[in-house]
């Protein structure tokens, strides 16, 4: 901000004035030479950013000012009295403290989890296998494609069971954070997404 206010940013027009030979153009819109006024006041990409902030704080921006005047006025922006603070998110309805327990001797415990970037969205899952002494036997992470969050949780458990079977671990303790998964596994329900019915 200090360099902007003093006009000390090395924009291409200032470098040309200092004697450098440049074919100056704005790196964002390619429609004008790169000057301080263009970059911060007249470039369409700057306007997108300013439109967002002006709608957020409900202020009117005057782009007819010089860059120095514009930034001095920007420093003194104050939100309109009509702006109300955003409501705080509601508290979690119930917080349950969970303790991690070692599996009994001869058992392997796997903790699984999954994540989905959207609903549905690009998804991945993983799991960590531990023995009765708390040592990690192995772990896995896998991309599973485009899925909903509950499908990803199910994919993680299915992959964990497949890995355990391949390693010969028949006494498997599955830990997951999904009540949906617990209900499916505890009652052998067939109420699963159709793509998993053959798994």
TrEMBL record:
Gene3D superfamilies the record matches: Ribonuclease H-like superfamily/Ribonuclease H (3.30.420.10)
Signal peptide start and end residues: none
Residue span, RNase H type-1 domain: 111-188
Residues annotated as domain Reverse transcriptase zinc-binding: 1-46
Domain of life: Eukaryota
Gene Ontology molecular function: nucleic acid binding; RNA-DNA hybrid ribonuclease activity
InterPro entries the record matches: RNase_H-like, RNaseH-like_sf, RNaseH_domain, RNaseH_sf, RVT-Znf
Pfam families: RVT_3, zf-RVT
Name the record gives this protein: Uncharacterized protein
Organism: Dipteronia sinensis
């Amino acid at each position: 901000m200090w360099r902007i206010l003093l006009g000390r940013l090395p924009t291409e027009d200032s470098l040309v004035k200092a004697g450098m030979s440049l074919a100056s153009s704005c790196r964002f819109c390619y429609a004008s030479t790169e000057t301080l006024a263009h970059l911060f006041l007249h470039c369409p990409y700057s306007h997108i950013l300013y439109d967002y902030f002006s709608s957020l704080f409900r202020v009117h921006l005057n782009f007819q000012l010089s860059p120095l005047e514009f930034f001095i006025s920007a420093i003194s922006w104050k939100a309109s009295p009509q702006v109300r603070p955003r409501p705080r998110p509601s508290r979690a309805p119930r917080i349950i403290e969970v303790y991690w327990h070692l599996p009994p001797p001869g058992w392997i415990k796997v903790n699984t989890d999954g994540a989905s970037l959207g609903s549905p969205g690009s998804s991945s899952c993983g799991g960590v296998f531990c023995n009765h002494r708390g040592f990690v036997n192995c772990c896995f992470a896998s991309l599973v494609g485009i899925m909903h969050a509950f499908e990803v949780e199910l994919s993680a458990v299915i992959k964990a069971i497949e890995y355990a079977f391949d390693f010969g671990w028949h006494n498997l303790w599955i830990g997951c954070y999904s009540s949906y998964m617990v209900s499916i596994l505890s009652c052998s329900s067939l109420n699963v997404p159709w793509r998993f019915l053959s798994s």
